[in-house]
Design a protein that fits this description.
- The complex is a heterodimer.
- In chain A, α9 packs across α13 and α11 crosses α13.
- In chain A, the strands form two sheets. In chain A, strands 1-2 form a two-stranded antiparallel sheet. In chain A, strands 3-4 form a two-stranded antiparallel ribbon.
- Helices cover 48% and strands 6% of the residues of chain A.
- By secondary structure, chain A is mainly alpha-helical.
- The N terminus of chain A is likely disordered.
- Chain B is mainly α.
- Chain B has a single domain, classed as Orthogonal Bundle (Cytochrome Bc1 Complex, Chain D, domain 2).
- In chain B, α2 crosses α6.
- The chains are: A mainly alpha, B mainly alpha.
- At the A-B interface, α1, α2, α3, α4 and β2 of A face α1, α2 and α3 of B.
């Protein structure tokens, strides 16, 4: 067994051992599908992405809003409308590729106590405070019509993302709930340089200046019900 | 609890694959392209229905044969705008190495069974 394999197994065991019984059970099952530490991208290459089953969590503490994470773990909903790419819940038909609802994985719901314990553990995973600190985003004014046009037509984000329920592409996470789920500085940083967070991300790095990035963040705030 | 039983198995499954850097063009296509261009390369990926401009069908030898390898390389690197096509084709030049882009170009030639 390779060193990499031993590390993966050791990680699951270490997390399980460090937590209370209920939370340890939940956390060890997290590691079955989610990466809890950064993979060795240089060794694994894109094969790592082919093997992924679920979003990575090694930077969860820099990414999610803690209150949202704890609540979602108790009542999980589908955020990725086609599942996690490339191992998505799609099937090929005569009409092209379509989402097969029967293949969509339903995340287990945790008890309130386990959800809090797991959320606490995940929110402690903060390897990129530096990237968060580099963002200077402050909410700005944006007309909904202009934001929609920018998101859909000028930047082409809608090709992969829903910006309204049932409206948009399927390969990326829904974004009309992004403001509820994600820290604003993470949104800005991830749009700016997604590979700084995840080498094998399938989010393309666009060539945008800071103002253009922040305009997209403002749009997500606007459609996500955030404060003006 | 089902996931508790599956957790260790999933970890072992992760270990079963030998680490490698030698990804193929087909593997790269499966990660970066099928969302829009389709698992069959027919331009009808799961995202296509939401697009105002349909993605290119890579299995079309007429359309693909009209493109030089250098054009394909450029559009993957710099996006649709670079060849006056749709902004919906993003630039992948920051995500992929030159070698990976070249592997994708060669895989496109396999899909279309055509030269450029």
């Amino acid at each position: 067994m390779s060193t990499h394999c031993l590390k993966v197994l050791a990680l699951g065991a270490a997390i399980a051992a460090a937590m209370p019984a209920g939370a340890a059970d939940a956390q060890s099952s997290c590691g079955g599908c989610h990466a809890l530490s950064e993979p060795d991208f240089a060794t694994l290459g894109v094969v790592e992405r082919l093997q992924r089953q679920a979003p990575p969590l090694w930077f969860a503490g820099n990414k999610y809003k803690e209150g949202w994470l704890e609540q979602w773990l108790q009542a999980p909903t589908t955020i990725l409308p086609a599942g996690y790419f490339p191992n998505a819940a799609i099937t090929h038909t005569d009409e092209g590729d379509v989402v097969d609802p029967a293949k969509l994985h339903q995340h287990d719901a945790l008890s309130a106590a386990d959800a809090k314990a797991v959320a606490d553990e995940l929110m402690a995973l903060k390897p990129h405070d530096d990237l968060i600190a580099a963002m200077n985003y402050e909410p700005g004014n944006l007309a909904l019509r202009m934001g929609t046009m920018d998101f859909r037509k000028f930047k082409g984000c809608q090709a992969c993302h829903h910006d309204a329920e049932g409206d948009g592409g399927f390969s990326g996470p829904e974004l009309y709930t992004a403001w509820q789920r994600l820290q604003p500085a993470f949104i800005a940083s991830f749009i700016t340089d997604p590979r700084a967070w995840d080498t094998n991300t399938i989010m393309p790095q666009m060539e945008m200046n800071e103002a253009a990035v922040y305009k997209l963040v403002d749009y997500l705030r606007l459609i996500g019900g955030g404060e003006q | 609890m089902k996931t508790l039983a599956m957790g260790p198995i999933a970890l072992l499954a992760l270990c079963a694959a030998a680490p490698t850097q030698a990804e193929t063009g087909e593997e790269l296509y499966h990660v970066y392209c099928i969302q829009c261009h389709g698992t069959a390369g027919d331009g009808r990926g799961v995202n296509a229905a939401a697009m105002d401009v349909l993605p290119r069908a890579h299995i079309d030898p007429v359309e693909m044969g009209a493109r030089q390898d250098a054009d394909l390389n450029k559009v993957i690197h710099q996006g649709g705008k670079s060849i006056n096509k749709s902004v919906l084709m993003p630039s992948w030049g920051h995500n992929l190495t030159d070698e990976q882009v070249e592997k994708l170009v060669q895989h496109l030639r396999v899909l279309c069974n055509c030269g450029g």
